[in-house]
Design goal:
- There is one protein chain.
- This protein folds into 2 domains: 120 residues, NIF3 (NGG1p interacting factor 3)-like (Udp-n-acetylmuramoylalanyl-d-glutamate--2,6- Diaminopimelate Ligase, Chain: A, domain 1, 3-Layer(aba) Sandwich), CATH 3.40.1390; 122 residues, NIF3 (NGG1p interacting factor 3)-like (Udp-n-acetylmuramoylalanyl-d-glutamate--2,6- Diaminopimelate Ligase, Chain: A, domain 1, 3-Layer(aba) Sandwich).
- The chain is built from 9 helices and 13 strands.
- The longest helix is centred in the C-terminal third of the chain and has 12 residues.
């Protein structure tokens, strides 16, 4: 076994002491997952969620990982070509119990294929949504240039690394911006094809509330916090009326709101495991197409 010997420079250490680092240490699924859970512990997921290791064993030696938003059959093919035996996704492929595995749904086909190809599937979902630092909403806030950010709807008496956890995020633009210019800027910075929005009842935007994915339940909180605009996804037609000329609702699409979670997860993994191969999927898994 190859070992590298480093001379300690700590003044409190013994002068001639040495530390040995095993450069051949085997990486296992558990090593990657444990690190991700230091950022977003599994117990912070919502009770309806199914985040965690869905397919595979914690003790499996990891070759390399592929990061995606959704696991599809095409993503598993990509993982196979890249020799990745662990797929890290934001959305869990399985939300409910499966009673049959006969390939009639894409969920069944993906799980069957993952088992056949010996590829693990791990999901880090609402636990990553709920954390303040290095969370999904922090990434969105960074992309659109928000400052002085905080959790929009904190969970009572729940903290992580001394930070409150909870749903959504609220913050300020560096300077107030004309409403339409802000929407156009966000469309570019978030790489969005289209935005569905309500009447621009505010001429300028300064305070902004965001929630990746389906965040409609946070609208009333965004209003109470004085946000001029609430950015989220999955709004139904009649729900847009709930803006009630008090706030601007901007629906940017579910995939579009969370697509940079792939980049976020890559950053988290690469910062810890600098010599480890982590790939971002090149497959757009958004099931919604635009004409």
């Amino acid at each position: 076994m190859q070992k590298i010997k480093h001379r300690l420079v700590d003044p409190f250490a013994l002068i001639n002491s040495f530390i040995f680092v095993d450069v051949n240490k085997i990486m296992r699924f558990k090593d990657i997952i444990d690190h991700l859970h230091t950022v977003a512990p599994n117990h912070l997921q919502e009770n309806y969620d199914n985040a965690g290791l869905i397919v595979g064993s914690m003790d499996t030696e990891v070759q390399s990982v592929l990061i995606c938003l959704d696991v599809t059959e095409a993503v598993l093919e990509e993982a196979k070509k890249l020799a990745c035996n662990l797929v890290i996704a934001h959305h869990p492929i399985v939300f409910r119990g499966l009673k049959r595995f006969n390939g009639t749904s894409y969920v069944e086909r993906v799980v069957m294929k993952a088992i056949k190809e010996d590829i693990g599937i791990f999901a880090i979902h609402t636990n990553l949504d709920n954390v303040f630092y290095q969370g999904v909403n922090a990434k969105i806030a960074d992309k659109i240039g928000l400052e002085k950010t905080s959790i929009l709807l904190p969970k009572e008496n729940v903290h992580h690394n001394d930070e409150l956890v909870g749903a959504g995020m609220i913050g300020y633009l560096p300077e107030p911006m004309e409403s339409m210019l802000f929407l156009e800027s966000m469309k570019s910075s978030m790489n969005i094809n289209s935005i569905k929005y309500t009447t621009l009842v505010h001429k300028t935007i300064h305070k902004v509330a965001v929630c990746g994915g389906s965040g409609g339940f946070l609208l009333s909180k965004a209003k109470r916090e004085g946000a001029q605009i609430f950015i989220t996804a999955d709004y139904k037609y009649h729900e847009f009326f709930d803006a009630n000329d008090e706030i601007i609702i901007a629906d940017i699409g579910h995939y579009e709101s969370e697509q940079f979670t792939i980049e976020l997860l890559h950053e988290i993994i690469s910062q810890k495991f600098s010599n480890f191969a982590a790939h971002c999927t090149k497959i757009v898994t958004n099931p919604v197409k635009y004409l």
